[in-house]
Amino acid sequence: MSAYVPYHLVHAHLPAPPAVPHAIPEVEVTTNRPFPETTDVYSNPLHPDHASSISFDASSSVLARTLYNGHVLELRPLSPIITSSSSSSSTDVDTSAIRVFFPDTLRVLAGNSIVPSLRDGRLYVFAVSEANVVYRLNFALGRTGEGERHVFVIKDDDWCDEYEVPEDVVAAAGDVSSWSVIDEDTVVLGATDGGIIRVVRTGHWAGEGNWTAVHHRASSRLRIGSLFSRSAHEQVVSLADFQYEDQLAVLYTLSHDSKIRTWSSLTGQCLKTTDIRIPSTDLVRSTSTPPQHTDSSAALLRVLRHPRPGKYSHLVVAFVSTPHSATAGTFVVYRASNTVHGANDLVLAGERACSSSSAGAELRGFEVLPPSRADGADGWRLWAVWDKKGAIELESVRMDDIFQFTAYHAPPPPFLLEWQAAPADLSVDSLDAAYFDALLGPEAPDPTTPTENHDISDTFISHLFLPGRFSALTLSTALEEYIEQLPRRSRDAQATTASPTIAARFASAVGCQIEMTTSATTGAPVVEAYRKALKLDWLGIWARVRELDKQARWPLATAVVGGQLLVLAREGVVAPVPEEAAAVLVRLGQSGTGVDGVLALPEGPLKALYPALAPPLARRALIALTSAGSSIARSLDSIDSEDGSALETFVATVNEQLHTGLSEPIENLTGGWWDELVEPFLPEDDRTAVRRALSDAPSVLRALSDALDLLADTAPGPSSPVPSAAFAGLGNALLASTITATVSDRYTFARNVLLVALFHLSESADPSSEDEEALELIETLSRAVIIYHRYRVLYWLSEQTGIEAKERAPAKKGHVKDDVVADFGSLKMGDAAAEVDGFDASYALIHALLVRYPQAVTRDSASKLSTAAMAFLDDLALILPAQTELEPQASDVALAYKVLVDGHPRIAGQLAELYSPSAGMAYIKGRAGIETGLSEAGAALLEQAVAGCRDGSLRHLIPASPAEYYRQVLEFVARHDLDGAVVTFGQLAIACGDKQDPASQGLWSRVFLAQVALERYEDAYATLTSAPFLSAKRELLSHLISAMCEANAVGRLTSLGFVGLQKDVEERLNYKARNSDPLRFPNYYKVLYSWHIARGDYRSAAEIMYAQGRRFGEAHSAKISAFEIAAMQARSYLAAANALALVDKRSAWFAVHVSSGAAKTQKKRRASKYIPEDEFSPNNKAVDIVTLQDVQAAYTSVLSQLRLSSHIQDLHEHGVSLSPSELVGFFTQRGLFDLAQTSAASLDVDMTDLFTTLALRCVELARLPAGAAEHAAAAYLAVSPLTAKLRGPPAALALRYLQLSLQRHDGAKTGHRYRQAVADVWFEANSDRKAGWVMPVWLVEWEMARDPERWVARALQWGWIAEAVDWTADLVRRAMPPELLPANKADAAYIPYTLIDRVLAATQDSDEKDEPAVQAKASQLRAEVERRVAALKKL
Question: By the 8 A CB rule, do 481 and 544 touch?
Fold first, then answer.
């Protein structure tokens, strides 16, 4: 039985070069040959990273590519699948790829350039340069087999052998035209004379071998000149070897003159020569022109081992081109068998002429593949790869009738023996300038903002970055070339502009040099000219990208991996994949080609892969249906409407209405679509054609039902997975392309089915009759709409890139597990590690999803990709059997969730918008909104989505309990630091659950912590007091205190009641204050001070401020100067003093703990009745009692040092601590008498020295000349509040200052010692009478009033005789006159007669005895005394 298996092509780009230079290890071969002096040869004519030739070895999964225009050989592991043993070491391209530089350009790589040697345990890679130098690279051989990965490591200098073929050998052969590898020691070079050069290496170990090269001529009949030259047509264009058991190992060569020569691989002897027989149909050409062949880079000769060796052991397949015929050429098949010592003649098995469509194309390679199905129904196929005008074409044809490997069977239908083309996606060819002109008008999208023209860049970027369309290398190359041609200013600006992605760089670079001009007449922006210039720049980029992509897709070689044909291009891989049923129908409906052949097929060839198409009637009906749908779509697409074509308008309108849900019965809704969107644009001729096409279907409704069943069926079919294997980077890339193509075909088919359903609705009776046929029609319409919508969703999804996840978390993508999936693993989430083999999955969302949710690898060969693609769709389960509801189901939500957790929240949100509103999609949109920054809207949607716990739309994600839902959402919003949402969902979770449940304690804590983080301290306090768990309250309380203090919300802290918790608050604040640094924020001393002040506890407030002051005295900081610390200490003491001053005198004290040593040296204090005795009990620690005076003294001491520091610069820098007397002394020395007096009074320091200095200053100022008013000694008088407002000579002001100071600080408490000290200074300093000093009157009056006798005696002591006489006379005069004394009371008035006698005696003994004035005063005093004595005697 033969099977009908059409194919289509899928494409995958190879990994782009790493962005980091030299990320792939680069080495040079060990050679004495010179390397190129410049790098220009590396970049012309091809792009350096475009391969010029390729070789692939399936057994080792190693790909070899010649890059840099043949100067570099890149080796890398590459395979569609990967085994579990290799996956752990193959996730980084840098460790598994290598680039080897050669001094000369390499020839095209042979198909068998890579030779794994199990004997040596080495992997050999051969290369031949155009200088005819043979290189043999060898590396350690790891595991072999499909899916294994090789790591290239160079540890010594023996990794490379080099042998230059002697020039005479090459000259004898003419030149080298091709080459091949026989084994690890033998290389065969094809010569232009039809012969070969056999290059053999002897010696087993690397570095120890000897090379020899021998030229072997082809055997032919002798002709003149044959011994000396050969025709150019004899050059060898392709080689292939064959080895089988004990048969002679042979090498086949195909020469340009269409001869196949058989050579001994061991000796090089030419054994046989066979002229290829040309079919008679190809003889229509010039007889003088021999058969032509493509260049030697394509493999034109294949040897195929016979699956059942017997008479023949193998087949030889050769291609002969016939460029002047109706086809490109013919494939000729020979049967062959060798003996032990020789080779038999080749026996012609048959020919297969190429298809007519191959005319003018160039063969780039061919492969012969065995049946991919176990039953062999698809047969042996020959695949030919063509290059037709720069585009790749792939065709296949069955070869069973020629190969005849099996017993005779009835020949398949002729249709199955025809060449079948595997179409590629050529939609990009239609995207020309006219296409973009239709999309982009001359006016700005928004007339109000004419300078905003982002629609142009957005349109082109969306087309450039459509998943799989262009490679990253192609895009980046085109962009770099564009930037290079920019003006220097724009180029330099781009060099300094950082862009997160290449798409963003495109947007910023293209058109950056274009400026919008303004109209000279109106001053308005000339938008049309600007948009035209910008569009031209983008069209230039588009054309260059297309050109580079065409070069990148040029096929170089073919390979077969696990039964899957791969076409290796310069920068990509192409694979033929069997079409699924919908794709077959779409192709038949659009092109019409092959419809008759498919209709004529019997049921058997279709039953294997396309059971829905097997029944002839069903097949005819489905083909009629797809033809009618394609006809309607073409008609609509050819007619313009307001927003593009009528088809585009129809699709856009239907999609928009389906996004919002069904607002009316389905028959009314679809009827409206037909009336408004289809019927006005469908000509009558097209309607007739549709009716004619549908007439082939026995029942249109049945055909529609069958088509919808086909679309709803996504089952991959029976298959068995391969254990320990997974799709690798290349496999996932090809699979993503397969899925995209499958979805595109199914979407197109679903759209066409919907169009036919609308047409049938218009042709049917009114469906409101509710008969059986009407109900069936309504059900069909519902299914058509739903299935169309689901495939529309998948089609939209397939057009999205995965760049978002790369932008959001390039280092963490795939490593962050979602808690929901971790708890509920029904989504089969795999490990989303980085893609293997250097592939970047971000170019396509489908590829990214395949990495996270890997698909199983089946044992099928050619259908691996198609089976996995259908399995992917089947796992999504978007279309349920007999589904008639448009609303999103649990599977739809699961799909959006997969996109979300893979790191694409923006796409997930947009995906949810494609569905009608529901709880499940609200959950997706809510999470997506939060992850994209729309926190408030996202939280609101998540709050609404709780309904999904009831309707089942979240059953795959969230447990059914609302409480559990809120818990899960709480975890999610907490990870995103959304404290407001944490509060909301935490409170909802508490409200829905058991508040007393111990498991809810964490909820209370989360709500509390979120409220604190939001600075909603009052709410947090309410939560704290409401929490039923006492054990957690203390911890939460501590956190609340710390948070409010750190937020400087002390006022709010003190305003809270803390009922029942005040003691705990004080304890925590005390603890934090004692154990924290007061120099750091927050200062818990200040917080505790505010706490006590707010509660009227001034004593405790004073105590804590005093403690802070002491801590400041011990503090040291590299950031804060000692002066600032001292200032803070002073403020602390001041606050303590002010607080303690508010306390009743009996309680105006507090105790501070001191060390035992400090307690012993502590000065004794006067006992106070206000201090309780229990403070001194033996059980208490050593304490010091601090009173208000102590605090004030401490404040004054620190403040004094601060004031003094402005005069002594380094006072604080050296940590000097001055005693109170030293402080007063320093103030006095620097004339700071006000500060000196204040400090001395507060610190209880004796001020004798201070007043002595002031007295001397008065004497000094009194002796100044009259014009010396600005003397420095008088500076203190100008700043002191006592004299600053007074006017007068400095001497007078100084005396006034001293007088007032004595009045303040000298009195009975001091024993008037300061006045005595001042008097002594003046008496001593003015003993010289010539100085003219006069004792101030106020001092004399003070002393005469207080103790005149001592005052006069001191004057006598210091020699002030004249003044003593005056003061004595004044003393006598002040005494009560005798006349007023009572009788017999002569002693009632005390007169110091003894002192008077001393004064009078002094006037006679001192220097004043010669002064008449003094003597006159003495005489008067004596007379007065005598008179008084006489009067007293009378009493």
Answer: yes
